[in-house]
Design a protein that fits this description.
Layout (H helix, E strand, L loop, with lengths): L7 H20 L33 E3 L5 H12 L10 E2 L15 E5 L12 E5 L4 E4 L7 E4 L1
Parallel strand pairs: 1-6
Antiparallel strand pairs: 2-3, 3-4, 4-5, 5-6
GO molecular function, one term: hydrolase activity
InterPro entries: N1-like (IPR000026), Ribonuclease/ribotoxin (IPR016191)
Pfam family, one: Ribonuclease
Length: about 150
């Protein structure tokens, strides 16, 4: 046998790691998913498939009224056209992380959502799309939820 001179305790650990790697896709094995589950709301109600517009299908969603108060205030400012608290608000969002659907440069714009206790802009943003889409991130563009209004 190949593993004749390997201590049994090491074989058990290696076997457990191998089993965890094999089952990682199905059971998670404690790992963090790369993207949130589709149609999960996180901080809001789960929308049924018929309630979700085409641009939001297949991604996590959140109802606007379930967003933090600061995000709802930014949505109201976007609707009014400003004024915005940060000079970067309304600038082009490059989608370099490629988490949002691929579009031509200039399609997406970002707006800062103030985070209480943060001295700088923090990690929270609303990103708008040229087709009327709204997205919310609270982890600086790593994940997004489609905002249902």
């Amino acid at each position: 046998m190949i593993f004749r001179n390997v201590p049994r305790s090491l074989l058990r650990v290696l076997g457990a790691l191998f089993l965890c790697a094999v089952l990682a896709g199905a059971a998670g094995c404690g790992g963090k998913p790369a993207r949130p589950p589709a149609a999960s709301a996180g901080t809001g109600a789960t929308a049924g498939a018929r309630d979700v517009p085409g641009w939001a299908r297949g991604m996590a969603v959140v109802r606007a009224d379930a967003l933090p108060q600061q995000a709802r205030e930014v949505l109201a400012l976007i609707d009014k056209g400003g004024p915005y608290a940060y000079r970067q608000d309304g600038t082009v969002f490059g989608n370099f992380e490629k988490v949002l659907p691929k579009q031509k440069r200039g399609y997406y714009h970002e707006f800062t959502v103030r985070t209480p206790g943060e001295r700088d802009r923090g990690a929270r943003r609303i990103v708008t799309g040229g087709g009327g889409e709204f997205y919310y991130t609270d982890d600086h563009y790593q994940t997004f939820r489609a905002v249902l209004r």
